[in-house]
Amino acid sequence: MKKLMLLAGLYFLQPGLHAAPARINVKHDVAPISAHDRARIHFKENYAWVQDAAWYNTVNDGILCVFNQGNIVNRVFYDKLGYWQYTLLSYPATDLPKSVEKNVLNNFKGYHISFVNEIRSDGQDPVYMINIENEDSIKVIAVNGEQIEVKQDLLKS
């Protein structure tokens, strides 16, 4: 009877002996990438042709890269981990897509477009922040697709 109890005990212990995890040899020779390195890699993949890029740290520990492309000033923003957040393009009215220009001028008769900021973010259509003026006022409008929203309305003095 003692032998049976001993064999039963050993039988139940046996699966536990083989349940230990197998040792996996994992190489830990890949160093974690810094935020600045991650941002620079993204930048090179998306803007390889840029020669005059200037890099800055932002007040919220993010990273900013600025470069010119003809009349357009490009600002590429990265978060504090170096992941791309959005790109801001600033340019004169002459570089605004004609369909957007037509939509704005049809909705604001008597105004002219003085300046444009275009915001590009992942998976979304660009949003245009457009300065329009007439003799009496300056408006800042947001254009997203066909939607137009007045963000600021200032009187000239």
List the helices and strands and how they pair.
Layout: H1 2-18, H2 35-46, E1 54-57, E2 63-69, E3 72-78, E4 84-91, H3 98-107, E5 112-121, E6 127-133, E7 137-144, E8 147-155
Antiparallel strand pairs: 1-2, 2-3, 3-4, 4-5, 5-6, 6-7, 7-8
> How many E strands?
8
Share of helix among residues? 10-25%
| Helix vs. strand class | alpha+beta
The portion of residues forming beta strands comes to 35-45%
Mean pLDDT: 85
**Stretches with pLDDT under 50, minimum 5 residues:** 1-22
- Compute the gyration radius: what is it? 30 Å
Under CATH, the topology of the largest domain can be stated as Nuclear Transport Factor 2, Chain: A
Would you write up a description of this structure?
- The chain is of the alpha+beta class and 157 residues long.
- The protein has two domains: 33-89, Nuclear Transport Factor 2, Chain: A; 92-157, Nuclear Transport Factor 2, Chain: A, CATH 3.10.450.
- It has three helices and eight strands; from the N terminus they run H-H-E-E-E-E-H-E-E-E-E.
- The protein has helices at residues 2-18, 35-46, 98-107, and strands at 54-57, 63-69, 72-78, 84-91, 112-121, 127-133, 137-144, 147-155.
- The radius of gyration is 30 Å and the shape is elongated.
- Mean pLDDT is 85; it is low at 1-22.
